Amino acid sequence: MNVRIYYEDTDAGGVVYHANYIKYMERARTEYFRDHGFLVAELARDGFVFPVVKLDIDFKSPALHDDFLSVITTPVRVGGSSVTLCQKIVRVSDDKLLVQGLVTLACISPAFKARRIPLEIRTMLETELDTAE
Q1: Is the pLDDT reported for residue 30 higher than 80?
Q2: CATH 3.10.129.10 for the 2-132 domain, yes or no
Q3: Please, where are the H alpha helices in the chain?
């Protein structure tokens, strides 16, 4: 997924405000699932919700106003009821890695009970995991 940085994304120092990277990563995860045929809203209606339960981010270099970024999402671990994704934010013009994060999502019911990841999603994630290795 690509993101253009607008003035509203920046802080008083003229760089992207740190919390905005989390928004970009969230959007990229939603698009990652969409690109693989799974709509997050439909999954939630079917009783499968995927909240973030762990987030580890390394801020390596700042993005600036008008930068064009790419957010790359790749699974690195698939469990029965959780998945860990690596997300990299790269500036397109020079392919510079700006931010890298590991995000763990749990699969839960609307009643906040752990659920197994649906088989078709698990299969897709495992296939993507095998491809990335």
Answers
A1: yes
A2: yes
A3: 18-35, 40-45, 119-132
Per residue in 80-110, pLDDT tens?
999 999 999 999 999 999 999 999 999 999 9
Q: Report which of 43, 25, 128, 115 is spatially closest to residue 77, judged by C-alpha positions.
A: 128
- Angstrom distance (rounded) from CA 46 to CA 122: 16
Nearest to 28 by CA among 72, 58, 59: 72
Counted residue by residue, the chain has a size of 133
Give catalytic residues, as residue numbers: 11
pTM: 0.94
Both tokens of 48, joined, read 């499968």
Q: Give backbone dihedrals phi and psi of 15, rounded to 5 degrees, phi first.
A: -110, 160
Q: What is the pLDDT of residue 16?
A: 98
Handedness of CA 33, 27, 39, 114 (dihedral sign): positive
The domains of the chain are located at: 2-132
Residue 30's identity, in one-letter code, is T
Name the helix (H) or strand (E) containing 84.
strand 82-91
